[in-house]
Write a structure and sequence with these properties.
- By secondary structure, this protein is mainly β.
- It has a single domain (8-451), classed as 7 Propeller (Methylamine Dehydrogenase, Chain H).
- It is 9% helix and 40% strand.
- It has 5 helices and 30 strands.
- It starts with 7 loop residues before the first helix and ends with a helix.
- Mean pLDDT is 90; it is low at 1-29 and 436-451.
Length: 452
């Protein structure tokens, strides 16, 4: 339910334009981009890596690190910029704006949000805004995913200000960094299903006027040492076991699904005619596919397992190919990347596995699927200890059969900290490929700018 409502005329203008797209419009997913963000369909020039500061390493602060990843560049494989955020905030995920000129990022502990200019000089991002009152404005803490809408940024926090537990919501800001609205996750026995209030990631399907949210755990758990957490029987009860389908135009929940074990990343297949989404549950190692039945109602299907669930491989990130035919899954505990044949999403098949490091967390693939990027850090208190605490960025070529390592940067040796989330960028933004949706919503975006 909405705690604060959009300015109705502005919301109507944006969403009407957004959802006049044909149902079969060809939208493509470059890693985890919003469909409203223009894509890099050729060689990416840069990768931004958000790093968690570590006491005694460099200045000890969190950083936005920029690495040149174009093999034709004179500075290929080099860190070309690093921007210290000052202090340690449990920095986590980032999200690109709808014009790919700005990058948003959040701190799971400090609740700060940073907005970077990555359009003026992509190789040297500039911090242009720090939002320090997120918890006060919204009632939520732990801003996690940042997902572009026309003129807006949708944010999914992990926890709440009241008890630092798992009940949370969905928050919307405008592109200027102003708070717009907050919407609580469904809780309790409802006509649409039994909600537990937990949240994590978000993914939008414009053609179907829906978005899907997943679930994880609250501040009390994600800031706890992993070894201590696993031994705490009561704490282990406090993980999300649901996912929610929402109506994007009204921002109202449509259905709550029972998806046990903390379903994490949300990805939609943008292959024309597909209209299905996918998540993987961290604690149960299950794959869930969401699609409509013959009556048009959304259903969640448990379609398979990742590795041996009894060993808790802990799937932590997924990357769905642009055509929806393949999916990378990273499993943190064994440090491996698995590739699944998704030709039939109801029957995924693991066809390849490679150990990337002692631990591995995030995975991002280029639009053409020929390059795959990996980073290592999960959470500061959840990463492995001692010699297994490897912190890296690794880049591989993928020919459809084998990963071949092309670049490896040791973030500890470089005094950069723990390598977490990644986003790509090009030096020349004119080479980006706008989606049909971008052109369709331009009049509405202009109206939003005037109204705000």
């Amino acid at each position: 339910m909405s705690k604060f409502m959009f300015t109705r005329t502005v919301a109507a203008a944006v969403l009407t334009a957004a959802f006049t797209l044909p149902a079969g419009s060809a939208l493509a997913d470059e890693t985890s981009c919003s469909p409203f963000t223009p894509l890099i369909k050729g060689q990416e020039d840069l990768v931004y890596v958000m790093t968690l500061g570590v006491k005694g390493i460099g200045d000890g602060s969190d950083k936005l690190v920029t690495v040149d990843v174009n093999p034709q560049s004179k500075t290929y494989g080099k860190v070309v910029a690093q921007l210290s955020l000052g202090g340690r905030n449990e920095v986590h995920h980032m999200g690109l704006s709808d014009d790919r000129r700005h990058l948003w990022a959040g701190g799971l502990d400090s609740n700060k949000i940073w907005v970077f200019d990555i359009g003026s000089n992509p190789a040297k991002p500039k911090l242009i805004k720090t939002i320090a009152n997120f918890a006060e404005k919204t009632g939520y803490v732990g801003p996690h995913s940042f997902y572009a809408l026309p003129g807006r940024m949708m944010i999914t926090p992990l926890s709440n200000k009241k008890d630092h537990g798992g009940e949370t919501g969905v928050v919307v800001y405008n592109n200027k960094g102003d708070f717009v609205s907050a919407h609580a996750m469904p809780v309790g026995d409802l006509p649409i299903g039994k909600g537990d209030g937990y949240g994590y990631d978000v993914g939008v399907n414009p053609g179907k006027n829906v978005f899907l949210t997943s679930s994880f755990t609250g501040w009390n758990n994600y800031m706890m040492d992993l070894g201590k957490l696993i031994k705490d029987a009561e704490a282990m009860k406090h993980f999300g076991n649901t996912s929610v389908m929402w109506d994007l135009k009204t921002m109202q929940p449509l259905k709550v699904f029972n998806t046990p074990g903390a379903p994490l990343e949300v990805r939609w297949s943008w292959q024309p005619g597909d209209n299905w989404a996918i998540t993987t549950a961290a604690l149960t190692s299950q794959i869930w596919v969401y699609k409509q039945d013959d009556k048009g109602e959304w259903q969640a299907h448990n379609v398979g397992a990742i590795g041996n669930p009894a060993e808790i491989p802990l799937p932590v990130d997924i990357s769905l190919a642009a055509n929806g035919k393949g999916m990378w899954v990273d499993t943190f505990m064994d440090g491996s990347a698995r590739y699944f044949d998704m030709s039939d999403p109801m029957h995924p098949k693991e066809v390849y596995k490679k150990k990337i490091g002692s631990q591995v967390n995030m995975v991002s693939q280029s639009y053409d699927g020929k390059r795959v990027y990996f980073t290592s850090s999960l959470l500061a208190n959840w990463d492995k200890k001692g010699k297994d605490d490897e912190q890296f960025l690794k880049v591989y070529d993928w020919d459809g059969k084998e990963l071949t390592e092309k670049l490896s940067l040791d973030f500890y040796k470089l005094k950069l900290g723990r390598a977490h989330h990644m986003k790509f960028q090009v030096r020349d933004l004119k080479t980006l490929k706008p989606l049909e949706s971008i052109a369709a919503v331009q009049p509405a975006v202009a109206q939003v700018a005037r109204a705000d």
